[in-house]
Amino acid sequence: MAKSLVYVNKEMIIGLSVPYLGSEIQVVTEVSVTGGFNWLIQAQVSETQKKGTFAQIRDMPPETVANKLVTSMPVSLKFDDVDVFTNQLKQWDQENNVGKLVAVSGVLKLPNISNDDTFNPFAPQSINVSTFLYYGAECFACELTGDSIKLPVYFDKEALQLISYCNNKSVEIVGALGWVPYYDVGRNRSINSILKGAALWVK
């Protein structure tokens, strides 16, 4: 299914990408080269060569880094269902999950936004949500839902207008796990993790 990248946090995405992509990315382009091999025989040979250069990951557009990361992530860290993901979190309880990279898909719900509101890029709506400090960053909370399970997702306040476009839409979020006190996510299941959103694709 085609996806469109709606939001990316540059600092977070670079920090999460380095273990999987390295600090440099090779940018490769294909160049067609044509040349004669004998001037008497007017024959020519054409070949395609790959030419590339290395770019520091911190110097690349964050959208490029986000798209490369999501295609390079191990399958074991990608979840198409919130229910399956929260079950996996229970198995990870004995590990140090804070900062672990994951990708989770579901339906995004923002507080205090009507499902009937349409996003207008020429006149973004005024949105009032409660914000709070999470490890020094001012954030707002959303719900990523699937099969009656709700996973809290925290985004930086600056993302509000872009994220509001995705209200009640099917999305994929890549981010890092964060710690909070235990809470109930549904079906008598308690976990102590939230997802700090680094990039979001709408499906």
Q: Can you identify the CATH class of the domain at 4-10 and 68-202?
A: Mainly Beta
The helix/strand order is: EHEEHEHEEEEHEE
Secondary structure class reads: alpha+beta
Major sheet details: 5 strands, mixed, barrel
The portion of residues assigned to helices is 10-25%
Radius of gyration: 22 Å
CATH topology of the domain at 4-10 and 68-202: OB fold (Dihydrolipoamide Acetyltransferase, E2P)
Q: Could you tell me how far the N terminus lies from the C terminus, measured between alpha carbons in angstroms?
A: 7 Å
Superfamily (CATH H level) name of the domain at 4-10 and 68-202: Nucleic acid-binding proteins
Question: What does this protein look like?
Answer:
This protein has 203 residues and is an alpha+beta fold. The chain has a domain at 4-10 and 68-202: OB fold (Dihydrolipoamide Acetyltransferase, E2P). The chain contains four helices and ten strands; from the N terminus they run E-H-E-E-H-E-H-E-E-E-E-H-E-E. It has a five-stranded mixed β-barrel with strand order 5-7-8-10-9. It has a two-stranded antiparallel ribbon with strand order 2-3. Helix 1 (10-21) packs across helix 2.
